[in-house]
Design brief:
Length: 54
């Protein structure tokens, strides 16, 4: 999405960018890490177990 917005802004005003040909475009990535505690198998789960912490 960042690259799409950057390309649109570049079309609107090329003076904002001094990218020479061959300059790599910025790239963002994200990762989600989930920690599990008190893992139990073959037991019914309550709905409260699925509440996420932020």
């Amino acid at each position: 999405m960042l690259n799409a917005q950057r390309e649109r802004a570049h079309k609107e005003n090329p003076a904002w960018f001094d990218d020479r040909p061959g300059t790599p475009k910025p790239c963002l990535s994200s990762r989600t890490i989930t920690d599990f505690a008190d893992v139990t198998f073959d037991a019914p789960l309550d709905a409260a177990v699925f509440n996420r912490e932020k």
